[in-house]
Amino acid sequence: MLPAPYPSTRYIDAGTMVRLVNRKGLSTCISGIAERIAADFRRWQDFDKSARVAAHSTEGVIELMPIADARRFAFKYVNGHPKNTRIGLPTVMAFGVLADVATGAPRVLSELTLITALRTAAMSALAAQHLARAGSRVMALIGNGAQGEFQALAFRDLVGIGELRLFDVDPAATAKLMANLAGQGLQLRACSSIAEAVRGADIVTTVTADKANATILTPEMLAPGIHVNAVGGDCPGKTELHRGVLERASVFVEFEPQTRIEGDIQQMPPSFPVTEFWRVLDGTHPGRRDDAEVTVFDSVGFALEDYAALCFVADAAQQMGLGETLRLVPQLADPKDLFGLLCQEAGVPPPTQPPVWAGALS
Amino acid sequence: MLPAPYPSTRYIDAGTMVRLVNRKGLSTCISGIAERIAADFRRWQDFDKSARVAAHSTEGVIELMPIADARRFAFKYVNGHPKNTRIGLPTVMAFGVLADVATGAPRVLSELTLITALRTAAMSALAAQHLARAGSRVMALIGNGAQGEFQALAFRDLVGIGELRLFDVDPAATAKLMANLAGQGLQLRACSSIAEAVRGADIVTTVTADKANATILTPEMLAPGIHVNAVGGDCPGKTELHRGVLERASVFVEFEPQTRIEGDIQQMPPSFPVTEFWRVLDGTHPGRRDDAEVTVFDSVGFALEDYAALCFVADAAQQMGLGETLRLVPQLADPKDLFGLLCQEAGVPPPTQPPVWAGALS
Question: What is the ipTM of this complex?
Answer without folding.
Answer: 0.90
